[in-house]
Write a structure and sequence with these properties.
Order of helices and strands: HEHEEEHEH
Shape: globular
Number of domains: 1
CATH class: Alpha Beta
Strand order of the largest sheet: 1-4-5-3-2
Number of helices: 4
Structural class: alpha/beta
Number of strands: 5
Distance between the termini: 26 Å
Radius of gyration: 15 Å
Length: 142
Amino acid sequence: MDTTALETTPQAGYRNISHVARLPKRSDFLRIAAQKRRWAAPGLVLQVAPRPEDAVVRDGDIRVGFTATRKVGGAVTRNRSRRRLRAAVRQVITRSARNDCDYVVIVRAATATRPFDKLVSDLEIALKKCDAFAPALESDVE
């Protein structure tokens, strides 16, 4: 049986976002931090800023950056935390985030051990608190 994960993933409730792109430069991280639009949840910190007009982004892409400091733990803990946040971002951002903004997700000490459903909930709440929540429209759902 030759099926890919893409073929077996349910698409209900997802907006037409093709890809979660990475923030390419340190200056993008600094620009987003300078906006001071952020929300801290037990599992993560979310920072949001409007995407600049001159940003080169494919249609349907949302740019997200991830940060984990050494205060969180060793390399294994930081990498595990980032992987968990990337999975939560793929699940939440693609269906619930405004696509005219850039996002930075910062790892917290509890990220590595927090239950995944609570991480997803933290991200959804942070999007709402940062005024970046845009649930899928019924016309987007197919």
